[in-house]
Amino acid sequence: MSATSEWVSPPTRPELIESLVSGVDRYNPSNVGILEDYLYHQIRSREYDCLANLAILKLYQFNPDLYNPDVVVNILVKALASVPFPDFNLSVALMDDRASNNNMDEPDPLPGLLPYLTNLHSLLQQCRFPAFWTLYRSDALETLRDNYTVEVVGFENSIREVAVRAVKATFQRIGSKRLGSYLDLEGGELEDYIARLGWKFDSSTSVVEVPPNPDNQITSTVVQEDIKLQQLTKVISHAIPAV
Amino acid sequence: MEGGRWQSRAIMSQPRASLWATEEIDEDLQVDVHLAIGNYGQNGLYDDAQPRIDEATLVAVQHQMAQQAAFAQIPDAVKRFIVHFHQAVLENNLAEITVAYDSGWNRLTEKHYSKTEWPEAEVIAPLVNDDQLFLILYRELYYRHVYSRLQPDIDDRFHSYENSCELFNYLLNSEDGPVPLQLPEQWLWDIVDEFIYQFQSFYVWRARVKTKTEEELGMLADGSQAQVWSAYSVLNVLYSLIQKSKINEFIVAKQQGKSEAEIAEIVGDYGSLPLYHMLGYFSLIGLLRVHVLLGDFTLALKVVENVELNQKNPFTRVTACHVATYYYVGFCYIMLRRYPDAIRVFVQILNFILRMRQYHTRSYQYDQINKTADRMYALFAICNALSPSRLDDNILNIVKDRYGDQFAKLSRGDEGLPAFEELFLYACPKFISANPPPYEDQEQLAAYAEDPPPEPAQHHLALFLADVRAQAAVPTLRSFLKLYTSLDAAKLAGFLDADEEEMVQQMMAVKAASRSVSRVGNEQNLLDGQMISTSDMDFVINENMVHISEVTVGRRFAGWFIRNTEHAQRVLDGVKNSPLPLAPQTTASEVESKAAPAQKKVAWGMSKA
């Protein structure tokens, strides 16, 4: 079972999008609308399709006239929740520093937002979740919240899932206060969230038990050499004519 | 080819005669745009960059005289070479073409043209009966020489593009279907490789606004020239070659174990000819490279998803292609943060280069391959610092030898950043920006020249360093954890003089750094992979107590033993098969001494069986 198969080709991806992502039609600028609509569909329905969104950025790269900063911000916002996978940087890599369009009626919001988005991304990458929430809720990011993330259905929960992935891999048991600071939840909300994860919460000790998984079970092992017959073919076959 | 042989003097005296009737030039030079990815953003290919030569007789005569003078200056050896080369192409004699291409051209370049251009194609045209196909091939070599030995000027850059278009157009859009031309595999690779190199070189040159002359500024501002070296036109060429040759279908059919006959049916008229077959494959690798240059690392891997990365792949015959494939795939893996995959790819190819070294010392590509190898050692150092591995101690030792200073610094967290930066900038591909400076707008151009955007390499460097920074705490924490089997988090924070909560968050980052997606099984697709643990040290936190475990690797004897046994066998065989040192000259007749080598052959054949 490949860990990336859903990333390469999400089960929710419609056939039309698949044909664009995998075919040469992805270069046709007249298809940008289809891909942009699909992005907004992802935003409304908690779906995510990195490769389709990269295809939008590719079209912007080759056709600066198509550039739409709102779409770019939305792609980056969606990519934040993919940490620890590299989607955010892959998106930024396609964004040309020179592409910012001077012929727009309104000022381009992207140059102002990009440093903050980059910052949010690196906080997630470094697992500094409390700092992420502090920055995300700060006054400086009001525009991002009011104009973008508010439209992204389930945005905050998708970030919590990033934190949950990190906690699951690292902890067997974790204090509820600590967990709450990662999830930006407390009290009843936190307990509900923990219950929905199916994790056990001991209210007397305030400790949450993380179910066992391949990453939080550790064993010391010694790896022994494993010789396959194939490696010995030369040595053995050489012995035959010598007889 | 017959139709292309123009006899008319009038056409010959034109600076750049076309293979086709001149009236049709605009249409003909469209590089198969409709076939592949459509005519996006292309407003006609280009109008002939050079103004038509004045028809006035006087000018024509002067021009002819100048050409005759130039012709007279060509050394006889060069003339003979060109005639011979042309003959080989006419006869489709692959062996002779290979000799001319591999050694003749390079030898004469060293002797006569190490600092100047080869004679212009128009000047040598009489030598080859004005054979248009040969002149296109000649120009391919001519411009490649200009790019590699001299400084191409703007005309060279525009004309080399034009010539590439003519060549690909001839191959792809001939009315009679596939062209029965044969060229050495190496040359076919060089054609694609050079096409992309010139594309990349044009972008780098175009981005430097300040050094442009008035004439250059005028040409670059001319909207009708926008098509020259546009990314769309380059992609068109590559996709057209891929589609015509049905190379992807070929690879898939091969993997499915289809029969020769079935495969021949699948690949069709074009794909069954070696020329198209190889060009198709090389175009896949070319596409990989173009996408990397433009920063699209997922698409780069996606276009080569069918390509198998192993030494059995028949395309490894062209070493330069083989090496380039691994370099670009490995680099993509780095940008996808799949360091174990990158390491495996680099180890494979670096070992291959080490083994090939003895055969390649005299090859003119040897330098190029060596340079790429050096860059891969640097990339290996980076990957190894981010995801330490003992996959291949031999390669690791060479890296330590070559990049010792930087290698030590890489594992020092934030202090190591300059070393990462240095190695990355040295070893990364020559990134380009897809869009030109605003040459058409004086005002914007001045602003651009005043405050140019960062180089594309800096853009990718910043992204890469962000990944490195996210792992900055890892080496220090790991070195502490290795000393314990369990340890209180507060105590660990105390050692590090850090806040406990922040330290615990860093621990999650350490955990994340020890996991990676990697191709461990037999994943078909280069983008596929499974989540694996990449570290020999693992830990888990139970509330506030850190528990640590280590994976130790037992000593490996068998590999060493097998290698040395095989080596001993080779030595023994060598000794056995050598002729006896002192042939008894006095008694041995000539017949017997002749029999000795024959004997040797038999013995060798037996030991091999």
TrEMBL record, chain A:
InterPro entries attached to this UniProt entry: ARM-type_fold (IPR016024), CSN8_PSD8_EIF3K (IPR033464), eIF3k (IPR009374), PCI_dom (IPR000717), Transl_init_fac_sub12_N_euk (IPR016020), WH-like_DNA-bd_sf (IPR036388), WH_DNA-bd_sf (IPR036390)
PROSITE patterns per UniProt: PCI
One MF annotation (Gene Ontology) recorded for this entry: ribosome binding
Domain PCI, first and last residues per copy: 48-226
Localization: Cytoplasm
Key words, A-Z: Cytoplasm, Initiation factor, Protein biosynthesis
GO biological process assignments: formation of cytoplasmic translation initiation complex; regulation of translational initiation
GO cellular component terms attached to this protein's record: eukaryotic 43S preinitiation complex; eukaryotic 48S preinitiation complex; eukaryotic translation initiation factor 3 complex
Record's subunit section: Component of the eukaryotic translation initiation factor 3 (eIF-3) complex.
Function text: Component of the eukaryotic translation initiation factor 3 (eIF-3) complex, which is involved in protein synthesis of a specialized repertoire of mRNAs and, together with other initiation factors, stimulates binding of mRNA and methionyl-tRNAi to the 40S ribosome. The eIF-3 complex specifically targets and initiates translation of a subset of mRNAs involved in cell proliferation.
PANTHER family per record: EUKARYOTIC TRANSLATION INITIATION FACTOR 3 SUBUNIT 11 (PTHR13022), EUKARYOTIC TRANSLATION INITIATION FACTOR 3 SUBUNIT K (PTHR13022:SF0)
Family: Belongs to the eIF-3 subunit K family.
Name of the protein described by the UniProt record: Eukaryotic translation initiation factor 3 subunit K
Species in which this protein is naturally found: Russula ochroleuca
Automatic annotation (TrEMBL), chain B:
A Gene Ontology biological process term: formation of cytoplasmic translation initiation complex
Coiled coil: none
GO molecular function: translation initiation factor activity
Chief place of localization: cytoplasm
Subcellular location per the Swiss-Prot or TrEMBL entry: Cytoplasm
Chain residue ranges for the region called Disordered: 583-609
GO cellular component terms attached to this protein's record: eukaryotic 43S preinitiation complex; eukaryotic 48S preinitiation complex; eukaryotic translation initiation factor 3 complex
Residues of the PCI domain: 345-555
Pfam families assigned: Paf67
Entry-linked InterPro entries: eIF3l (IPR019382), PCI_dom (IPR000717)
Keywords annotated in UniProt: Cytoplasm, Initiation factor, Protein biosynthesis
Record note on quaternary structure: Component of the eukaryotic translation initiation factor 3 (eIF-3) complex.
Membership in a protein family: Belongs to the eIF-3 subunit L family.
HAMAP family: eIF3l (MF_03011)
Function: Component of the eukaryotic translation initiation factor 3 (eIF-3) complex, which is involved in protein synthesis of a specialized repertoire of mRNAs and, together with other initiation factors, stimulates binding of mRNA and methionyl-tRNAi to the 40S ribosome. The eIF-3 complex specifically targets and initiates translation of a subset of mRNAs involved in cell proliferation.
Protein name: Eukaryotic translation initiation factor 3 subunit L
Originating organism: Russula ochroleuca
